[in-house]
Structures are given as C-alpha cells and as structure tokens.
Design a protein that fits this description.
Three copies of one chain form a homotrimer. The radius of gyration of chain A is 25 Å and the shape is flat. Chain A has five helices and 39 strands. In chain A, strands 7-10-13-16-19-24-27-30-33-36-38-39 form a twelve-stranded mixed β-sheet, covered by helices on one side. Chain A has a domain at 14-105: MurE/MurF, N-terminal domain (Udp-n-acetylmuramoylalanyl-d-glutamate--2,6- Diaminopimelate Ligase, Chain: A, domain 1, 3-Layer(aba) Sandwich), CATH 3.40.1390.10. Chain A is of the alpha/beta class. Chains A and B meet through helix 3, helix 4 and helix 5 of A and strand 21, strand 22 and helix 4 of B. Chains A, B, C: One of its GO terms (molecular function) is UDP-3-O-[(3R)-3-hydroxyacyl]-glucosamine N-acyltransferase activity.
Chain lengths: 351, 351, 351
C-alpha cells in the first residue's frame, strides 16, 4: 500500500544512494545497489515490490520473512530473515532510519510564504521570512513570529507571544502569554497560555480569581497534541523542556516544570506546581497530583494516580500508584483471594 | 414543559395520524383518535395536557401513572398504567418511536443552502447541491463536500477531504486526511485526521516524527463528540464503522479500527492499533492500551483499564480490567478484609 | 520576580493606602506606613524589595522568614515570623487579600468597546454598551449580549443565546442553546450547549438521535475551563450554580444540575442527569456515573469513580468509590497482603 497521493505529496521514486544519505547513520551496500530505485515506503506486511520497509528489532520477524518489499532496513541480527529478492539495508536504528526515509518520500507539506489577506495582524507584530499565515489567523499586537513558521487557519496568537524559527500552529490552536523556541508544534485545537485554575474563596463562599501572572515557556521542538491544554504559571512560569511531546487531550496545570524529552500520552494530566525531571513518561490517562517531584526517567503506567514524589527511574502503577512490582503483587493477591472466596463473595454481592 | 421556542423551531401542533406515520412501526388506534391534535413532546413528569410522552419499559411506571400527557407511547405490558384521559399508544419500541415523533415537532434546524461570503473555498473544491457553508469556514483545495451538508461557522476542512451527503460539521470542528460517508457529524471542536502520536528517539535522545501516512475513514452515520480527537493512521487507516458514536473528549489513536455501532462514552480512550469489533461499548473514562483486539459486543466499564485482548460479549471492569464478576468478587473481598482488620489497618495508616 | 510587562499591564507603583482599600477587610497599620509605596506583587521566595507578598497560614513559614518582600500579608499567628525590614500587614484572609491586591497592580486587560469589522452579527442580535466583539467572532440571530462583555477572537455565540453583564468568551469558545448570568467566563475552546449524547437503537442496530430539547443555564460567575464541555439538556436544562468553576477538559453531560460553588478539577466528568449539591468538589480525573445525587459539600478524590449516591459532606476515594477511610484501610490491607505473600505472588506473576 502506498500513501494516498491525494493527501500526501510524493517525492519519488528515489535512488537508493539518495535514500542512504538521509538515514542519519552509515549503511553499507554494494556500489551496484546504489542505483536501485525505490518508489515509496510501507510497513512489512503491506509493502509492494519496489517499496522500502523496516523491521524494528526482533518484533515482526514473521512479517519480515514474508515481506514483498524491495528493500528493508534491519539490524544485523535480523539480516538472515530478509527474504530473497529483497535488499537488506543493515543499520543500527531501523525505525529511526525509516522515519527519515519516509520523510524523504513524503516531505511535510509547506504552504507558501505569505500572509493570507483575511489574517488579522496586530500593530507591531513581526512575521519572519518565509512564514505562512493562513486564512483567518489572528496575530496579537507585538507578537514576534520567527522565520519559516506555519500559522494554520484560525490559529490565534496572543499579544507579545514569541515563536522561534520553524514553529507550526495547526488549525484552531491558540497560544497566549508564551515564549517558544524553535520547531514548536501545536496540533489542532491545542490551548497554550490560558489562565490557570487558581482562586481563593471569600468568607461568603464566592471564589476570587488569583491573578495568574506567569508565562508558558516551550523549549525547542516541544509538541502539544490536539485539544491538549497547558496553563500559564500563576507567578513563576510553566516550562516544558526541549523535545517534550504531549499527546491529544493532555492537561498541564500552572507552574508545572518538566525536563527535556518527557512524553505524556493521551488524556494524562499533571496538576499544578508539579516538577518532572528529564525523560519522564506518563502513559494514557495517568494523573499526577500537585506539588510533586518526579525523578528523571520515571515511567508512570496507564491510569496510574501518583500522590507522592517518585524517585528517578521508578516504574509506577495503580491508583494510588505504587512501584510496579508491588502493584502487580497486590493485584495477584487480590485475584487469588477472590478466587478462593467465591462463596463468601457471593454473600457480599447481595448487599 | 415545552421546548424553548427561542432555541428550538416548532412544527406543530400535529394530528395524531401524522405522528403515527413517523413512528417507524404500526400503532393501532381508533379512527376517531386519528384526529387528536398534540402540541408537543415532553417527559412523563413534565408533560402537560395535549403533549406526547413515552414510557420506556417498566422504568418510570410511577411517573406514567401520574402523567398529565395527552398521549403516551407505551409497550403492551404498561398499557394498564396509563392514566384516564391519556391516550395509550401501544408500540414495541416507545423510546425509538418517541425520538421520531420529537423530531417531527422539532425538526433539526437546516441553515439555507449557499456559501457565506466570508467562507474561503480552495481551488478545485466541490460543494454539493443544497449544502450550507457558514461564516469563516475554510475548505481546502480539492475537497469534495457532498449535497445537503452543513459546514458550521469556523469549521476547517483540509485539502482533499471527502464528505458524503448530509454531513454536519459544527462550529470550530476540523477534519483533514479523511474520507467520510453519508450523515457523518462532527460536534463543536472535534478533531479528525491530525497527525498521530508516533516518533522514534535518536541515540542522543531527540524524537523524530514518524511520518503519519494513513487516513481516517468515517463510515455512514459516524458521530464525533465535542472536542473529541481521532488521529489518522500511521500507514494503514484509522477506521470507524457505520453508526459508531463518540461522546465528548474521547481519544482514538492512529490505526485504530472499530466495527459498526460502537459507543465510546465521554473521556474514554483507545490507544494506537487496537481493533474493536461490532457494537463494542466503552463507558466513561475507560481506556484501552494499544495493539489489542476487543471482540464483538464487549462492554468495558467506567474507568476500566484494558491491557489484554477481550473476547466477544465479555463484560470487563477494573484497572487493570478483569471479567466483571471476578472484579466484583475481588472488590467485595477487599472491603471485607478492610472491615475485619481495622486495628491492623490503623497501624498501616501511621506509616 | 515581577510579572512580565510584555504580557501583563502594570498599574503601579501603588501607595499602601490604596492597596489597603482593595483588600476587602480592615488592616491596621501606622499612619506613617500609609505612604509606603509598593512596586508589585510576588510569592515570598521571589519577592524583591518594594514588592508585596503573602503567607497563607502556617504553610511557607520558612519562606516567610527569609522573604525580601517590602510588605507581607499574614495572619496574626504568623506576625512574629515576618523578617525585619518587611512590613507585616495582618489580615484574616491573606491569600484572598493578596489576590485583590494583585489585581490592583495587574488589572485584567480590557479590550476597547466596539465590534471588530470582521465580526459577523446575526439579524436582531443585541450587543450591550461597552462590550468588545473581537475579530472573526460570530454572533447568531437574536442573541443578547450584555454590557461590558468581551467576546474573544473566533468565539461563536449561537442563535438566541443570552449573556449577562461582564461575561468573557475567550478565543475559539462556542456556546449555543444557553442562558447565562453575569460574569460568566468561557476559557479558550470551551464548548457549551451542544447536543448531548442521547440516542436509541433501532431493532436493526442503527442509532437514532433523541432530540435534545433542553438548554444550558450558567448562573452568575460560572467559569468553564479550556476545551471543557457542557452539553445542553435532553428535556430539562443542564444547570451550573453560581460561581461554579470547571477546570480544563472537564465533561458535564446533559441534564446535570449542580449547586453553587462546585469545583470540578481537570479531566473530571459528570454523566447525564446526575445532581450535585452546593460546594461539591471533584478532584482531577474523577468520574460520576449518571442519575446520581451527590450531597452538599461532598469531596470526590482524584480518579475516584462514583457509582452510587453520596451523602452530604462525605469524602470519597477509589474506583469504585468508597468512603475515604474505608478506601485507605482497604489499600493498606492490600499492600500488607502483597508484602506478606511475595512467594505466593511470584507464582501468580508467572501465569
């Protein structure tokens, strides 16, 4: 199966020599092979003759043996499973190399530089060279948009916001009170910089908003998923480290700080003033309460609910979250007890 | 109580004969009753003289006995509970019949055909007969919008997107990289077709996006709730079967496939490459991890976290999810132990 | 640290006498002190000479002792910890007083009255005096917007919607089928009034939408977080009591009613037809199933899943939710059993 040309621009076929130059690591082939021409990319099971595929470690060995691909990126250990008639391209990082080759065949679309006549640009706003501003985008006063950015249709950039080079704001995203590095991406409907959830009750039970006077800082390469939300700080700033990626519908509260390379899977949430180290991962629907410290490289499991600090490198599961081994033991015990006590349990169900 | 005429167009009063013709099943009344005139619809407890109501099975029998409605849709078994002065309309599916009668009195508003002067229509886009395109809608190049569609204010349709007859895109919804059947509905802020959450780490710890080269296919009658998200496939397509309905804030990851008639309640989520059969239901805040297979008719309970394949027809509860009976037994045991061991537990709380 | 003047308008320096007049309660200082001039506000740890800070009860006593602030709002009991050179401003509610003083230094920006030339105003819509309507806002026919409102860029107000005085609709928010009091705030991307999740299956397995004929009523001061959703009623109305605040990505289903002062933290959800009393709080990712009654002042813990009615004042934890004490006991027992049975558990992990 090839990518649908109605939706994905095709840059191909490509000579193998050109492809090898994009992989980011050396790959040794015969001189004759350099002239091989490949027509596109596809997964092992769907690749057709003339297409490039990949096998990521020992997973998918069965699919590798059966693939019809013309060439396949594999690690040395899987070279023997490459079927006859398919060229083995041995690399250390097949998935990474494949992602780069795929981008060669299907470069991300780049709308033309220029400002759509319907865009509203506030006084004093600066738009960098080569930047595209789409229909109905609204750029606030004094905002500074870097070069080579893409501001999608209906995106709203607040007053004074700074975007570095090569940022992309997809349709309907909004950003205010924020300073962004290079290559930051907001997917459709992402919300960045709005007021955090801070207020104080009066003696009569009314809530008075605590002015939220901090910013959001998104370092280079941060990506915010569709309809995800990152609130600005209440006094200090909310900071997402370089390369951190948030999936769709993720929530990040005010004053949260996270190191580089964090990964927050869909519908996970981080409450206010919690700090994450480097390369912390939250699986889907996980939640962290406020004012915690999560150590470097910690992994928080799906639907886990973290109420206490987590040391570096820890694996946490459950709600409330426990170290993964402990959580699995508790779960096993619970199942065992349930099985041993069906009669007793049946009484209980009647209540 | 009648529906507020400021918000809901009224088409009535209606003769009973006209109403009966909309119910979708036969309903036997006397000839004299055919001339009965009803003024609107309302629930049993709120219906006034002259209004139509319904009783869904044995639920609400008390309300049925007290209703002031002029006529009520009931099953044969409940006919005896219809109070004097209220006409019993005996049908097999009272709720279904009522939903159709309600649509007769309050037909969904249909904005006039035509393209608002502020809409931006890309080169080569086709707009079907009778379709309404609202203010500030943006239609990408080469998109094909079927007849009798309603494209709401600020909706954004990406390049090449195909919408069948009678689709409705509500305010601020966006769709790209997608092929839709007839009668598809995107509620406000729904996001369809954006890039999935796929990337590969470099040895240095940077993340490189894996090009997401698949589409979204929404079959006939699919509805996507407000601010819900459906990512496009990474290579194959993300597919939602006919009639499937997603509630607000639901997440569907790349390459997910689900059969017809699935129901995903608010804030539930399905991770990438998981497959759902026909008529699978996810209750609120339930989550499925990736690469699973969920059988036809499976029911996943509220907040359940499914980590393994689920057979057809299974009821699952808990996080991690277990068959419902097992989960309830485990819960009962846990409560019992807690009650028997208060003293011991108190020690534990001190730690 | 002072608030960044690129993003937050500064109204200062201010004389202490002016500041004291905003606090909402008396604060006794010497006549000489009234002429003290303060330059801004900051948290204890970050405040610089000349800035105002606060200490909320006994928390942060260490920071209070070290603060460099020029003046600090404290309760009587903490007066002794105020360092030399820092003026103690003794009040009963330091956080509340501080929030008011902060708003004096940083008044919320007020865009100029008037209608942006790109806004689309439907026939018969009324716009109150002093109201700002931003670029690309769309106001439906017959809508009534009160005075002193701010309708942000791209906000969409449906036909007939009523907004009281001083409401704020932030960028990309949408509202339909709704009646709002004074001072209602929709944060970016909030969705109010869309169709609820109600439908009936046909015998053939198709779903037919039950017409959703109720409204949303937001009483004075209600705030709806970014990308949060409040569906309109199916017959009666969905009602949020005065001052209730919803955080980002919260879901409220059709026919839900909640009293004044409820607080729903991020990613929590309330299913259809559930009723909340006054001052109910839902912590992050908590969920309530439908048709429940939650008593006044109940507190539902993070990720709790409530399946039954909850009495007034109760603290609930766990999924399914139990009274907090019971849930903590059960958790303690589970951990203890797991620890006592490592050997047994190891067998279990092998399955």
């Amino acid at each position: 199966m090839a990518a649908d040309p109605r939706f994905f621009p095709q840059a191909g076929p490509q000579r193998l020599e050109t492809i090898l130059a994009t992989l980011g690591e050396p790959c040794d082939v015969t001189v004759a092979a350099l002239d091989l021409v490949l027509t596109g990319v596809a997964p092992l099971a769907e690749a057709e003759r003339g297409q490039l595929s990949y096998c990521d470690g020992a997973r998918n060995l069965a699919a590798l043996r059966r693939t019809a691909a013309g060439a396949v990126l594999v690690q040395e250990a899987q070279r023997g499973a490459v079927p006859e008639g398919c060229l083995a391209l041995v690399v250390r990082h097949p998935a990474l190399a494949f992602s780069r080759a795929a981008a060669l065949f299907h470069p991300p679309p780049r709308p033309p530089a220029g400002i759509h006549p319907t865009a509203v640009i506030g006084a004093g706003a600066e738009i960098g060279a080569g930047t595209h501003v789409g229909p109905y985008a609204v750029i606030g006063e004094g905002a500074r948009i870097g070069p080579a950015c893409v501001i999608g249709p209906h995106a709203v950039v607040g007053e004074g916001v700074v975007l570095g080079e090569g940022c992309r704001l997809h349709a309907h995203s909004s950003i205010s009170h924020a300073i962004c590095g290079r290559g930051v991406v907001l997917h459709p409907g992402a919300r960045v910089g709005q007021e955090g959830f801070g207020f104080v009750p009066t003696p009569e039970g009314r809530f008075v908003t605590m002015p939220q006077l901090g910013l959001v800082r998104l370092e280079d390469g941060v990506e915010i998923g569709a309809n995800a939300c990152v609130d600005r700080g209440s006094h200090a700033d909310t900071v997402l480290g370089a390369g951190t990626r948030l999936d769709n519908l993720v929530q990040v509260g005010h004053n949260v700080r996270m190191g580089p390379g964090c990964v927050l899977v869909s519908q996970s949430g981080v409450s206010g003033s919690t700090t994450l180290g480097r390369y912390v991962t939250l699986a889907g629907q996980a939640g962290l309460t406020g004012h915690l410290t999560i150590g470097d490289g910690a992994r928080i499991g799906a639907q886990a609910g973290v109420m206490r600090d987590v040391p570096a490198g820890a694996d946490m599961l459950g709600s409330p979250a426990m170290p993964a081994k402990e959580a699995m033991r508790a779960m096993t015990m619970m199942r065992r007890l349930a099985a041993q006590n069906r009669a007793a349990a049946k009484d209980g169900e009647k209540e």
